[in-house]
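User: quick one, sequence for these tokens?
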């Protein structure tokens, strides 16, 4: 029996507007009922971050960013630093999401630099890894994810808390999920990779599963060994679904 409390993180991606604040309020109101078995966090788009920081303050729901720059400040139009997220009261920042890797050309080295920036700012990076369908079908999933993990964890972070999220690219937004056995195999491999990299701290490092997590499949996925919570996209936009996923961690 491990001591890792489950963590359920909502990644709103490029969704939501002022009307979404009501959903966040409902999530905050429901956090107490799931708090015995799951911590919650929401990563809103930057336009809503200030409002959510106020809405979520002193509730059971933490705030997170969806991305950060590697530098603390400077002439980087459109970017947000880890220090800025920390200033807003955020606890987490997602780095290396597959959508950033694919659409913004983020390499493992960039992801590692962003994770180091998060640690520098006192945030917990949520470092995302995951294979494509082609890589899965070619039998390369373990090797690809192992390589991403090793190269995306910066040396600077080793002594600080961070989170890993395994998100198979082919499961994101598709309604498809890996089998429980596939998730168990990958999460065990990630735990081993963490042990090799950060030693005993690997036992407290949370490894989330992400990709088409819904209320209907959450109970099975959240009870797979070495799964310490979920990184939820579409189903995190509705408070009822998000809270139902957290409830499924019980
Ligand atoms: P979906 O839950 O919409 O598949 O998205 C998963 C994801 O990418 C979370 O970061």
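Assistant:
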């Amino acid at each position: 029996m491990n001591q890792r409390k489950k963590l359920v993180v909502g990644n709103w991606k490029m969704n939501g507007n002022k009307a979404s604040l009501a959903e966040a309020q409902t999530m905050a109101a429901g956090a107490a009922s799931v708090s015995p078995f799951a911590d919650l966090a929401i990563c809103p788009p930057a336009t809503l971050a200030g409002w959510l920081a106020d809405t979520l303050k002193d509730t059971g729901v933490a705030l997170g960013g969806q991305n950060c720059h590697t530098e603390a400040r400077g002439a980087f139009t459109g970017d947000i630093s880890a220090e800025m997220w920390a200033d807003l009261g955020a606890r987490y920042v997602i780095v290396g999401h597959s959508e950033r890797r694919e659409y913004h050309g983020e390499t493992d080295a960039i992801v590692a630099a962003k994770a180091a920036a998060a640690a520098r700012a006192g945030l917990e990076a949520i470092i995302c890894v995951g294979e494509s369908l082609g890589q899965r079908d070619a039998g390369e999933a373990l090797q690809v994810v192992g390589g991403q993990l090793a190269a995306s964890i910066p040396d600077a972070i080793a002594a600080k808390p961070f989170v890993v999220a395994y998100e198979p690219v082919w499961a994101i937004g598709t309604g498809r999920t890996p089998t429980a056995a596939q998730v168990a195999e990958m999460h065990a491999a990630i735990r081993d990779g963490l042990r090799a990299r950060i030693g005993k701290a690997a036992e407290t490092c949370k490894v989330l599963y992400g990709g088409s997590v819904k209320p209907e499949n959450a109970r099975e996925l959240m009870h797979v060994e070495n799964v310490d919570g979920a990184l939820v996209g579409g189903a995190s936009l509705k408070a009822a679904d998000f809270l139902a996923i957290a409830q499924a961690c019980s």
